[in-house]
Amino acid sequence: MEADEIHPQARAMLDRREQLGLAPIREVGLGRLRLLMRLTNWVQNRNPPSVGRTVDRTIPGPGGDLPVRLYRPTGEGPFPTVVYFHGGGYVIGDLASHDLLCRHLTRESDCVVMAVDYRLAPEHPFPAAVEDAYAATKWAADNTDALAGDGRLAVAGDSAGGALAAVASLMAAEKAGPDIDYQALLYPGVGVEDGQESVEKHGGRVLERGDLEWFRDCYFESDVHERNPYADPSNACDLSGVPPATVLTAGFDPLRDGGANYADQLAADGVDVRHVNYDDMIHGFATMTEEIDRAREAIAEIADHLRAAFDESESTR
After folding, report:
1. Residue 277, SS3?
2. CB atoms < 10 A from the CB of 29, how many?
């Protein structure tokens, strides 16, 4: 599932990290880590690709107002809607950290993308992020006019956000709504366990094994929570009711095997799933749209899958 070598552009990203002498994520300290991310976001977002319109607003959430950013394509619409959840181990990340990815996804898919700034741990441990993700998905389904939406709906996310998209899909299936047409899971943080080949071989590339443990400790107040299907949908006994999916993995990512196993689990439960493995890529590559050409390639592929799913949904109405 991995290439003989990491793609040169991804290798260059790893080399730059080594040259900067960056400490492991868990050793930087939460305050400094978030400050460093804000500075990085400010630099990378100075000249973003254009979309038809962006709107920052809040929607009602279980913990109070929930910030979201709406990305609208050019044209009058209405458009299909994609609710997007950012990665960051449930601890870091925000609307700015995934602004470029969401802009590219809007342009490639011709969908309204609603990025969700869900509550972060450790200040808000599980299930806060899950509650926000489901509430945002329900709001998007119930407020198509506010989104210039046409009623077709997908969820998407990367890493921790990919897990949230999967959980929102599971919750929607078990709670009788809302209707979700598709889920796009980019190297999702699901089913990741010590001893997996990808964890053993690739812990240390972007994410160290100690970082994975630190994120888990921040997010979960109890080990019991980790076995909850709404914490990790790979714990679910039956996934047959969830929407069709794309599961994208990266060959040199410690999360690779967890994502691949989840794709197999979906297929075994009768869900139409496409597993796409970028065998020469690293964790987080889809956000590196200015440094790695394959990031934009992956976003375009996800957009193609979304369009196909929305076209099929429209034809069966």
Report:
1. strand
2. 12
What pLDDT, in 10s, does the model give residues 78-106? 999 999 999 999 999 999 999 999 999 99
Measured distance CA(66)–CA(72) in Å, rounded: 19
Residue 45 one-letter amino acid: N
pLDDT 10s digits, 10-38: 999 999 888 776 667 888 888 988 998 89
Q: 188: closest CA among 95, 109, 302?
A: 302
CB atoms within 10 A of CB 262: 27
Contacts for 61 with CB less than 8 Å, ≥ 6 apart:
119, 131, 132, 135, 136
Residue 114: the pLDDT is 98
Residues marked as catalytic: 159, 253, 283
Structure tokens at 258: 């967890």
Q: 64-72 and 112-116 as β-strands: parallel, antiparallel, unpaired?
A: antiparallel
CB 249 within 8 A of CB 256: yes
Residues whose CB falls within 8 Å of the CB of residue 63, separated by 6 or more in sequence, listed in order: 119, 124, 128, 131, 132
Per-residue pLDDT reduced to its tens digit, 268-291: 999 999 999 999 999 999 999 999
Start-end of H helices in the chain: 8-20, 25-28, 30-44, 99-109, 128-142, 144-147, 160-174, 197-202, 209-219, 256-268, 293-315
